[in-house]
Amino acid sequence: MSYLNYFVFGIYPYIALSIFLLGSLVRFEREQYTWKSDSSQLLYRGQLRLGNILFHIGILGLFFGHMFGLLTPLWVWHALGVSHGLKQMVAVVAGGLMGAICLSGLSLLIYRRFTNARISAVTTTGDKVLLLWILGALLLGLATITQSVKHSDGSVMVLLMMWAQHMLTFQGDASSFMLGAPLLFKMHMFMGMTLFVIFPFTRLVHVWSGFASVTYLVRPWQLVRRR
Ligand code: HEM
Fold first, then answer.
1. pTM, whole model, 2 decimals?
2. Which of 59, 74, 143, 189 is deepest in the core (most CB within 10 A)?
3. Residue 108 domain flag
């Protein structure tokens, strides 16, 4: 069991991140015509605006929430006077809210993609796997709330923060923090890490472009001359 724990939480995260970074680079280099979000708006607009907006608000909120919550060092929270219990409560409320928004949008997107004939015709197996994988990770993430409320002192949350920070700083003992974590968290984290593995092979590559589009705010003026 402890070897499996070491592999999934000590080695697999680096495999996943390597595939994510190198895979994205290779796809960008070799397959630029496939680098897109593959919008289905022209085929069928129904449920798209509401579903897509709710889904993206939720998933981006969860993404930044995870980064901020897991990677902010403990001493920062101590300096700000924020107790572990308070941080845990904020995480449960904010994560639960964003998760619910994301789930409602994702359900609409899955419904239209699986029931509309025009959209089904252009939907690949990869599209289906992606949506269902995100759904699985999301449902497991929401289910972890049942565990978090049992540890309202934030002790499990601190273990997860330690794991993430030790992983990112290449400290060999990262997986040891996961030994005592409840199974639901482990399953949620495996599903989440695997999203990085499938990322370069799906339409998810549009996320890079989404973030890169922020550079438009500071791009140089476009010069237009008469002749
Ligand atoms: C960074 C900012 C982002 C932007 C600007 C963006 C933009 C878009 C756009 C324009 C579409 C196409 C909608 C249509 O059918 O017309 C789309 C679809 C999609 N996006 Fe994003 N996105 C972003 C981040 C993300 C993130 C973080 C995820 C999740 C991990 C994600 C997952 C998806 C998925 C799964 C679809 C396909 C939905 C479907 O099956 O219809 N996006 N996105």
1. 0.92
2. 189
3. yes
Residue range of the domain that includes 50 = 2-209
Of ligand 1's listed atoms, the one at least distance from the Cα of 211 is 1
Q: How many residues does the chain have?
A: 227
Distance CA 187, CA 66 (A): 16
Instruction: Report the atom number in ligand 1 closest to the C-alpha of 60.
Output: 27
Tell me: the pLDDT tens digits for 60-116? Answer: 999 999 999 999 999 999 999 999 999 999 999 999 999 999 999 999 999 999 999
Do the domain assignments include residue 81? yes
Is 60's C-beta closer than 6 angstroms to any atom of ligand 1? yes
Indicate if ligand 1 lies below 6 Å from the C-beta of 210. Answer: yes
Q: Is 185 exposed, middle or buried (0-12, 13-18, 19+ CB in 10 A)?
A: buried
Nearest protein CA to atom 32 of ligand 1, as residue? 204
The pLDDT confidence band at residue 27, using thresholds 50, 70 and 90, is very high
Q: Is residue 90 part of a domain?
A: yes
Report how far apart, in Å, the C-alpha atoms of 154 and of each of 127, 163, 176, 180, 184 are. Answer: 37, 14, 18, 14, 16
pLDDT in tens, 131-158: 999 999 999 999 999 999 988 899 999 9
User: How many separate domains does the chain show?
Assistant: 1
Q: Please indicate whether residue 175, judged by its CB atom, sits closer than 6 Å to ligand 1.
A: no
